[in-house]
């Protein structure tokens, strides 16, 4: 917790979720425009996708975490000159991947900045809690920079599913 109500910034660990991409049983992705309505679109896409996958009791957790990751990408990872009301060619992309007993949601954005979790003593704060919620509702999360011709980073959250 922060001391004396001050905000403390914590750098996050880098890495990939410990899963073999070749053994994925289901995968889906969608491009999201640079506007805040994209959060609603991401939730709809996630709900439609997960309805066809057996995610057990994790359905609501995954939808909440997707909302937070997409919100963070739109709020913190887009260049300041991005026009948020125009339909752009998806500067943010949502990926959902399911293995037998795990599900990963990953959000790609064009920023090179690492995500930063803020801790604060002010529980009435209206923002700054997104990564806290991601950590609370997922079984693990992290981020990694993109390599090769792709620019930016991916922030991911892992969910364990009951067999």
From TrEMBL:
Ranges of residues in domain Histidine kinase/HSP90-like ATPase: 32-140
Record-linked CDD domains: HATPase_RsbW-like
GO molecular function terms attached to this record: ATP binding
InterPro entries per record: Anti-sigma-factor_SerPK, HATPase_C_sf, HATPase_dom
Keyword Calcium among record annotations: no
Transmembrane segments: none
Keyword Nucleotide-binding carried by entry: yes
Alphabetical keyword list: ATP-binding, Kinase, Nucleotide-binding, Serine/threonine-protein kinase, Transferase
Database matches in Pfam families: HATPase_c_2 (PF13581)
PANTHER family listed in its UniProt record: ANTI-SIGMA-F FACTOR RSBW (PTHR35526:SF3), ANTI-SIGMA-F FACTOR RSBW-RELATED (PTHR35526)
Name of this protein: ATP-binding protein
Lineage: Bacteria, Bacillati, Actinomycetota, Actinomycetes, Kitasatosporales
């Amino acid at each position: 917790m922060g001391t004396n109500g001050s905000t403390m910034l914590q750098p996050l660990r880098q890495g990939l979720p410990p899963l073999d991409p070749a053994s994925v049983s289901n995968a889906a992705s969608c491009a999201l425009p640079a506007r805040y309505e994209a959060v609603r679109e991401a939730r709809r896409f996630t709900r439609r996708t997960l309805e066809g996958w057996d995610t057990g009791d994790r359905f609501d957790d995954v939808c909440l975490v997707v909302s937070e990751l997409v919100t963070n990408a739109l709020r913190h990872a887009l260049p300041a000159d991005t026009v948020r009301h125009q339909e752009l060619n998806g500067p943010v992309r949502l990926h959902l991947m399911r293995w037998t007993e795990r599900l990963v949601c990953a959000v790609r954005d064009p920023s090179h900045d690492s995500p930063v979790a803020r801790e604060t003593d002010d529980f009435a704060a209206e923002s700054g809690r997104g990564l806290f919620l991601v950590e609370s509702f997922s079984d693990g999360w992290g981020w990694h920079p993109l390599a090769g011709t792709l620019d930016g980073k991916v922030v991911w959250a892992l969910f364990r599913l009951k067999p």
